[in-house]
Every structure is written in structure tokens, then in C-alpha cells.
Design a protein that fits this description.
Layout lengths: L1 H28 L5 E8 L7 E3 L4 E6 L6 E8 L4 E3 L3 E2 L4 E5 L5 H32 L6 H17 L6 E3 L4 E8 L3
Antiparallel strand pairs: 1-2, 1-9, 3-4, 3-7, 4-5, 5-6, 7-8
Helix pairs in contact: 2-3
């Protein structure tokens, strides 16, 4: 009985020690580090803001180069973007490719996949159901129309993705340097 109590006291002491260490040490480790990022703002809505952090790849078109170039954002300061093979001012950028970065594209991709999948699934299930029950492949008109509408909607959503962020009066590029003192 004494051995069982001594094991529980050792375990309890160890757990209490870990909790106390976590209580005092974790707040110092959890402090935010300085953040630097390139902010693409479309109006004042925060949902349409896109951020590029150092270390991420960025595809851009500048005034000096008339075509899109893919480069890695290495660092940024108050005036310049330091890329792995170029140094740019934010005012030199004409457009930025946001196909992979814009969160609205993920929503459109999911809606497209959902519509295409549902249309093909309805069509396939109706065909399999009729094959097993009646022995012939026959699809009713209502199911064919519903399937065609769903597949058509999915195909119509394919080209609607946001491709580029073009600078204008509403669309701005901003360098953000958040430093904690």
C-alpha cells in the first residue's frame, strides 16, 4: 500500500512541476515575433486582403519586366521588396498572380468539385440502379436534367477564379512591418 502511495505522490509531484514550469515558461515563449509581410488590399474589406510573408513564392509583373516572373520573397523593409533575384519598389509592381493565394479561389474550387461530383454521381447511381433492377441502362428524363444542370454549373464555375491582383485606385500594395518592443 505504501508503494502505491509513493508512486502516486511521485507522479503527482511530476505533473505539478510540469504545470508550474508551463505556467511560467510558456508565456515568454508564446510572445509574437516581429512580422513583416506584403499586403495586397482590395478596398477596405479585410476579407479580401492577401498576405505574402518572407520565404513564400510570389509571381509578379513589374514595369521594368513586361511579363510575369516567379520569385521568392526574401525580405522587405519600409521602401523595397527583396526577392531572391530582384529588388523592387511596391510602386513598380503592375500585377500579382493570386491563383494559389486567394482564399476565395478555394471556395470556388470546392463549389466546382461539388457540382461536378454531384451531377456525375446522380447520373452514375441512376444508371447502376436501373441496371440492377431492370437489367438495362435507362436514365429518366428528370435525373438527366438534374445531372446536366449540376455538371453545367460545375463547368461554368471553372473560369471564375481570381487570377491576378492588378494595381489600381482600389487595389493597393502595402509593406507592413510589425515590430514588438
Amino acid at each position: 500500500m505504501k508503494k502505491v502511495r509513493s508512486k502516486f505522490t511521485v507522479i503527482g509531484t511530476a505533473v505539478l512541476t510540469l504545470l508550474l514550469i508551463g505556467f511560467f515558461v510558456l508565456p515568454t515563449l508564446a510572445q509574437e515575433q516581429p512580422r513583416k509581410f506584403l499586403l495586397l488590399k482590395r478596398g477596405s474589406n479585410q476579407k479580401t486582403q492577401i498576405r505574402f510573408y518572407p520565404g513564400e513564392t510570389i509571381t509578379y509583373k513589374s514595369e521594368k519586366i513586361g511579363y510575369f516572373v516567379t520569385d521568392v520573397l526574401v525580405n522587405l523593409d519600409t521602401e523595397y521588396l527583396y526577392l531572391s533575384e530582384n529588388i523592387l519598389k511596391p510602386s513598380d509592381i503592375l500585377a500579382i498572380d493570386v491563383r494559389k493565394k486567394d482564399p476565395r479561389n478555394r471556395t470556388l474550387k470546392n463549389l466546382t468539385a461539388l457540382s461536378l461530383g454531384a451531377g456525375s454521381m446522380i447520373l452514375g447511381l441512376e444508371g447502376i440502379n436501373n441496371l440492377t433492377q431492370q437489367g438495362q441502362l435507362k436514365i429518366s428524363a428528370g435525373v438527366a436534367k438534374a445531372s446536366a444542370i449540376l455538371v453545367g454549373t460545375g463547368l461554368a464555375l471553372l473560369p471564375l477564379r481570381y487570377k491576378t491582383f492588378t494595381l489600381s485606385e482600389k487595389n493597393r500594395v502595402q509593406l507592413v512591418l510589425l515590430e514588438i518592443e
